[in-house]
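Q: Could you fold this chain for me?
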Amino acid sequence: MTVWLIILCMSAATFAQRASFLLLPDHVRLPTLLRRALHYVPAAVLTAIWTPELLLQKGVLSLALGNERLLAGIVAIAVAWRFGATFATIAIGLLALHVFDRLF
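A: Sure. Below is the predicted structure, expressed as structure tokens.
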């Protein structure tokens, strides 16, 4: 029962946080600094998700050439920076991961 209560409370808290920006009255304006900062939230969240996947192997920091995920991530970052195409970044990053996995 305690676990379900925790899940329910956390769900309500998450919903309230996300809905707060959508349910604000029209006369309430967010500060300019906050509006500019919110623009970077998706990139920050995605970076927080994929960075540990690239840098850690079995829970240990691995910056060696044997880390195929890191190498494929570097290739994907280069493709994203150069071309800015999401599909190309994903496709070439996955291809690089498979190539590096076979090599190492």
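A (continued): The mean pLDDT is 91.
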